[in-house]
Amino acid sequence: MLQIDCPWCGRRDQTEFSYGGEAHVARPADPLAQSDADWGRYLFFRANPKGFHHERWMHVQGCRRWFNLMRHTVSNEIAGAYRPGEQAPRTSDGDRER
Amino acid sequence: MRHRLPEGGRIDRTRPISFEFDGRRYEGYPGDTLASALLANGVDLVARSFKYHRPRGIMAAGLEEANALVRHHAADGDEPNRLATELLLHDGMRASSQNNWPGLRRDFNAVNSLFARFMPAGFYYKTFMWPNGGWQKLYEPVIRAASGMGRVPDTGDRSRYDSRNLFCDVLVVGAGISGLMAALGAGRAGARVVLVEASHEFGGCWLDRPEMTIGGMAAPAWIADVVGELESLENVTLLARTLAFGYYDHNFIAASQRLDGAVAERLWRIRARRVVLATGAIERPLVFANNDRPGVMLAGALQTYIDRYAVLPGRRVVVFTNNDTAYGAALSARRAGAEVAIIDARRELPPALAETARETGIALHAGSAIVALRGKHRVNAVRLGALTADKSAITTVGDWLPCDLVAMSGGWSPAVQLHMQARGALAWNDRLALLQPSAVSPAEPHVCVGATNGRFDAASCLRDAVGRIAQTLGEIGFAAPPLEPPQAPDLDELGAIEAIWRLPALKGKRFHEFQNDSTAEDLSLAVREGMRSIEHIKRYTTTGMATDQGKTSNLNGLGIVADELGKSVAQVGTTTFRPPYHPVTLGVLANTRRGDFFAAARKTPMHSWHEERGAPMEPVGDWLRPWWFPEDGESKHEAVSRECLAVRNGVGMADASTLGKIDIRGKDAAEFLDRVYTNSWQKLKTGHCRYGLMLDEQGFVFDDGVTTRLADDHFHMTTTSGGAARVMTWLEDWLQTEWRDLDVFLTSVTEQWAVVQLSGPRSREVLAGLTDIDLGRDAFPFMTMREGRVAGVDARIFRIGFTGELSFEINVPARFGLHVWERIHAAGEDFGITPYGNEAMHVLRAEKGFIIVGQDTDGTVTPMDLGMDWIVSKKKPDFLGRRSFDRPAIRNAVRKHLVGLLTEDPGLVLPDGIHLTETRDMRVPATAEGHVTSSYFSPVLGRSIALAMVENGRERIGRTLHAQMLDGSSVPVRVTSSVFYDSEGVRARG
């Protein structure tokens, strides 16, 4: 079971959280101006990296706040949690894609 | 107890206790396990094997036992598949053998052995291939009847379980001398330490070695000293009979503890900063002919039975080995009075040990092997053979050697299961012929010490523990404790081992895996049939599955496969190790979450009233809602019909408290609603209500409800009962991540309000007696809200409803819910007020063609599909889901529409979910034109009605389709509008 650092509440067990898919999939500012292909990408296409992944979590059994987490999909190493609008932390690979 | 030695052992001889096995009474001592007590009583045959039902005895003394799985008749119910080696004997214990019929000695399914050549590796998979239809009619019933291990208890499990959380700096798993040393180091350094030990005693195998000295005293005394010191330290927690079975992410370890008291078993959830694995090593069998017969056991097990339990389970002992450790068992057996012969597969014997053995009168056969074994229910002779230098063939066949016990040792394998669950790596140690933790650092921070780390002499085990605990403590900021490894024997006990994965046989099966009856031949066959990956071979042959988890079988299996593939063991690699390492009861996993605690039930403030009326409850999400309110002797159909007619013709009342409710505040609240609903909200007047559809970004309906403006910046939203949490999360998501600039705050108020829905043409008259609010048609019109007092309680009344009749939804603070409900019921008495349940509500809304999200929709339905274009704003530039309307799959495709269906026979109610076809007869594969989503008998119409999603349905109104019934017949149905009653909608406005 993962231990996750909620940016508001601190370190808690994974059972307090729910997973919300890939982070930083921004809703297009003007959806009607989107091509079908671009809208389809927004709706359906998600990264599936072997390595660090930016993902959304919600502290559903705690403060009920959404936040972002950088988690390694192989080792489950967590590089850090950050609030919406904040910068992603640097990882052990020096990775900071977004 | 004919095999009990006159003295020795860690048993309490002052208090004989009795126990039963297969209905027969025996005696044992406290300190015995069921296995040692059975062996003491000369019970050789204790089980039948999984696949071939071969007779099996006890092969081990610890949790690696793969044969002796028994049914334990505990006070709180039967437990199948307990290991006889793990069951601590107590007075009156009852157990019985499994997997045999009618009995252990004569087991009918032993005929499986005769058909063994039809049940090779992968036979289960092969049954899928041929003949066509053979699976359903022939193989499955036969295999199902014959397979499985043990029987599920007929009675429920009356045992109690609990669970606890632990946090520590250092968790030490295993309390042999290495684990004790590590725990002592961490304990003295002041770290929070937890030490778990699967056995009931701390100390491991050195408990049985009083003749050996550690730190200048007898080993058991040194162990007692260390345990004593650990017990005295407040920062150390010692847990005996506790098996760490799973190593999970972020150093989370699950362990189960046997308590056998008021609580039968406890689950420990341990979060450790660092873990020390001192899980020891497990002896490997030798893979020779009939090596599974009762009377054949691991050499280390024999030594344990002699030294710890004072049981010598045979008088003529043959020790068969490829390493030095088995000499200890031979000498113990000899000392205990047995006639002993050692068959050593090595041509070069260890000089000192061989000398000692000869001096005590043990016969030695170097460079030999057992090539045949006789005795069905108990070994009675083995045949010697000389082997070629590479041990792959027999050069000369020797004599039969009479014996009643064979102790075998194929070497030792570190118990690396937890290390591997923690995603560690292994390295091949050629000198010791074993796989041990490699230097690569594991994903989860832990270290392995002692035998787990490939150390097979006491001195280096202790040095290893001291060194690694110092390093571990340093990593987490503790100063290394003052700790010197004590003086201990430095003899490498494995000696010059010669790896042998299988031995040539004259005749008989050679088992490398006892638990699943997997043989060396099965592995060869798997390779011949094209399996190359060890993962495939494992599954094809069921090697290392079930209770074994690779304990005794893993390395022999890998070795045989490596031979067959012409690779090294390291090249073959291992299968993935997964929890649990050892069987865990379902009871301890389910723990307290059973019965009423399995899932939370949510009850409305009026629940007790419904129960008193005998209303059956229908689960809606987590909620329990009254289904209908039966009167004397009524059937469900009669009750629902009565309730429906009461609402249509008089007045009814329903408990609608379960509706999801969200309080929305902030100056951007209307803008927010504009974005999440399909229609417009900016111009909604205060005190007015509006129905809304919520879509996901794919344009599909995912919830609906009525939202009311309470003030300029304040709304009251309702959602479906089951969807409330989902909607709340959805809305929060958008506010917190995408629309952080909006000034909007959401509060879930579902449970703050009790809701009475008063519905029917006479509902105004009932309510008028309870409130001062002007209920007049013009003063309080349809789709508006008024605040005031009802039955003396502050209330919000919404003139909305789900039945299509004149309705008032009366919301009061939850704590007044029952009071107001009862007052309304009393006030309605003169009007024949009728409480109605969920079923009547469903019928009434279906008559009106009102959808239920999740019943009539399935997550692929747009508002247009539902014929609800009217609710989709044409003016708003954007809202959630809007852009997806223009996707080709929605804009240009043939879509299913919500329509009504009427059967020719007005009494026939179609089954829910049934498919509709164009033609009467259906030839498979047929094209389904649609399916029924809701279907009821409508009392007010006196006939059945149904809602359906039908391809191009609105263009097909008036046409006939055919409902394909469950019995294969079909029924013609006419496609109609989805509104069956009061299509003008005048009644609700009344």
Provide key terms for this protein.
heterodimer, A: about 100 residues, mainly beta, Folate-binding fold, two-stranded antiparallel ribbon, 6 strands, B: FAD/NAD(P)-binding domain, 7-stranded mixed beta sheet, 6-stranded mixed beta sheet
Walkthrough of the structure:
Chain A is mainly beta and 98 residues long. Chain A has one domain (3-82): 2-Layer Sandwich (Folate-binding fold), CATH 3.30.2270.10. Chain A has 1 helix and 6 strands, in the order βββαβββ. Chain A has one helix spanning 36-44; strands at residues 3-6, 10-13, 18-22, 52-58, 66-72, 78-82. Chain A has a 4-stranded antiparallel sheet, with no helix packed on it. Chain A has a two-stranded antiparallel sheet with strand order 1-2. In chain A, a hairpin with a 3-residue loop joins strand 1 and strand 2 (10-13). Chain A is globular and about 40 Å long. Chain A starts with a strand and ends in a 16-residue tail after the last strand. Chain B is of the alpha+beta class and 990 residues long. Chain B folds into 7 domains: 1-154, Roll (Ubiquitin-like (UB roll)), CATH 3.10.20; 161-282 and 414-475, 3-Layer(bba) Sandwich (FAD/NAD(P)-binding domain); 285-410, FAD/NAD(P)-binding domain (3-Layer(bba) Sandwich); 508-595, Arc Repressor Mutant, subunit A, CATH 1.10.10; 610-629 and 636-657 and 753-845, 2-Layer Sandwich (Gyrase A, domain 2); 660-751, Aminomethyltransferase beta-barrel domains (Alpha-Beta Plaits, 2-Layer Sandwich), CATH 3.30.70; 894-976, Elongation Factor Tu (Ef-tu), domain 3, CATH 2.40.30.110. Chain B is 22% helix and 27% strand. In chain B, strands 8, 9, 12, 13, 14, 15 and 28 form a 7-stranded mixed sheet that branches. A 6-stranded mixed sheet of chain B has the order 40-41-42-39-33-43. A 6-stranded antiparallel barrel of chain B has the order 44-47-46-45-48-49. In chain B, strand 3 (47-48) and strand 4 form a beta hairpin. In chain B, helix 5 (177-188) runs parallel beside helix 6 (219-232), helix 12 (520-528) packs across helix 14 (554-565) and helix 18 (636-649) packs across helix 23. Chain B starts with 16 loop residues before the first strand and ends in a 14-residue tail after the last strand. The chains are: A mainly beta (98), B alpha+beta (990).
